[in-house]
Amino acid sequence: EHYLDRIDGPLQAKIGIYLRRIQGTHGGWPLFHDGAFNLSASVKAYYALKAIGDDPAAPHMARARDAILAAGGAERTNVFTRIQLALFGQVPWRAVPAMPVEIMHLPRWFPFHLSKVSYWSRTVMVPLLVLMALHPRARNPRGVGIAELFQTPPNEVRDWIRGPYRSGWGHVFKAIDGVVRAAEPAFPAGVRTRAIEEAVTFVTERLNGEDGLGAIYPAMANTVMMFDALGHGLEHADAAMAWRAVQKLLIVTDTEA
Fold first, then answer.
1. CB distance 65 to 29 below 8 Å
2. What is the gyration radius of the CA atoms in the chain, in angstroms?
3. 172-213, pLDDT tens digit by residue?
4. What pLDDT score does 163 carry?
5. Do residues 124 and 214 make contact, with C-beta atoms less than 8 angstroms apart?
6. What's the Cα-to-Cα distance from 246 to each of 103, 111, 214, 220, 221, rounded to whole Å?
């Protein structure tokens, strides 16, 4: 809602009640009920509560902030969370791995191809590739930021893979990322345009009605942001349907959501 500037105040208030209720005794938020502290989930929950209007000085926010900083700060979050932070201008795009939309053109014999990863991964990645090509910026009408969650100044965050590497593959992927990042500015504009068109076609063919792309939130949210980045408002049928799919995921009661 803050990305799109479609803020529903009463709904957000109910979401805030839910987020505060499920905050863990460790100060942050888990990935599952009564689970361990998860850094990425905690950064997103803190950001959501601050966007809703919670005072960063409030005890529950201070506990969350202390837990996040003790775990290394927001700069240590996972790739998906860093991309969200980049979309909101909280970190530079160099803080996330290079994922060129030209991936859509890779042949099947190539070591990496969309057909070689799970359906969940494909549906999440394809609209995300468009966002990473266009680098759109969240409207964020209240100008909410979370610089206080970083140990490193946010504009200096750049190394998206941090050691110690658990295997040699970490070094391999870091090297590949460096090569792709250096080459990407030289990619022909026409090739990029066609790759974006191919990605949009992939998404629209799989929108799945109001049950959403992949029937899973990250893919559905990325689709909504992709259509917005392409200039499609709610009057656009596909964009409107994608937005309704996200809204259908809400469980709203009399007291919380």
1. no
2. 19
3. 888 898 999 999 999 999 999 999 999 999 999 999 999 999
4. 52
5. yes
6. 26, 33, 12, 6, 7
Task: Categorise residue 94: left if φ over 0, alpha if ψ from -120 to 50, beta otherwise.
Answer: alpha
> Residue 162: which pLDDT band, with cuts at 50, 70 and 90?
low
What is the identity of the amino acid at 199? A
Whole-Å CA distances, 230 to 130, 171, 206, 238: 9, 35, 18, 12
**For residue 138, how far is the Cα from the chain centroid?**
11
State which amino acid sits at residue 219. A
Place of tokens 């479609």: 6
The amino acid present at 70, given as its one-letter code, is A
With CA atoms as reference, report the closest residue to 151 among 79, 92, 70: 70
Residue with the two structure tokens 């394809």: 126
Convert 152-163 to b/e letters by CB count within 10 Å (16 or more is b).
bebeebeebeee
Q: Is residue 219 a contact partner of residue 249, using CB atoms and an 8 Å limit?
A: no
- Please report where in the chains the tokens 């792709």 appear, as a residue: 180
Q: What ranges make up the beta strands (E) of the chain?
A: none
Which DSSP letter does residue 233 get?
-
Residue 29 bridge partners (DSSP): 38
Residue with token string 């919670």: 54
